[in-house]
Amino acid sequence: MKKENIFIMVLLVLILAILVWMNMPKESLIGTTVNVMGTAKTTIAKDLVTVTLGVTTQDKTVKDALSKNNADINKVINALKSIGVKGEDIQTSSFWINPTYDYNTQPPTRTGYSVEHDLTVTVKSDLIGDVINASANAGANAFYNLNFKVSNEDEIKNGLIDKALLDAKSKAEQIAKNIGKKVVDYKIVSYEYIGQPTATPIFGGGGGEGMGAGVPIEIGSNEIEVRVYVTFVLK
């Protein structure tokens, strides 16, 4: 009976020891930890821009309104290509045919039809002034949604993450040196972006019969910062 009691007590002690070991903080088993934030940032120029521009025409019949619109939009497309815009960078984004009415009469009377053909154009940022000028002079009478963006945004972000990790490691190594230890591993990594270089809308609205040369467009630049949060293990 005594042997059985001793066996049970030993078994309980072993179980208790295992439970204590399983619930011990990991760092107490493998060494000291230190939490470090690493940073990296850069200033980037938005090198691409998209703009939506179009032609709206009206006439008494669908056929005549469409014929006018086709002629005008082809002039716009040819004007864009003449200043170096590639065909694959010009895309139809919307096309509408709607009846028009005179609402001064009761009931309103149909006066004809309106045709709208919009294009989305993507070019290098330094060409956008010429795009607006050339298309307006060729007959475009609507301009919307001028957006600047960065062509290699992912590449820039990945490069900043690498630099921020090196910054965090350098800080951890300095801390370890000051307390007589060395960095042997890391446990947790998370990161965030500050001031992401996403597309920035500049304006929206209508156009006119023609614009003078050299439409002034300010491109500007963005600063983007990456912060990484790392837990380093020291021994």
Automatic annotation (TrEMBL):
This is DUF541 domain-containing protein. The keyword Transmembrane helix applies. GO terms for biological process: DNA damage response. It comes from Caldisericum exile (strain DSM 21853 / NBRC 104410 / AZM16c01). InterPro entries: 26kDa_periplasmic_antigen, SIMPL/DUF541. The keyword Membrane applies. Keywords: Membrane, Transmembrane, Transmembrane helix. The chain crosses the membrane at residues 6-24.
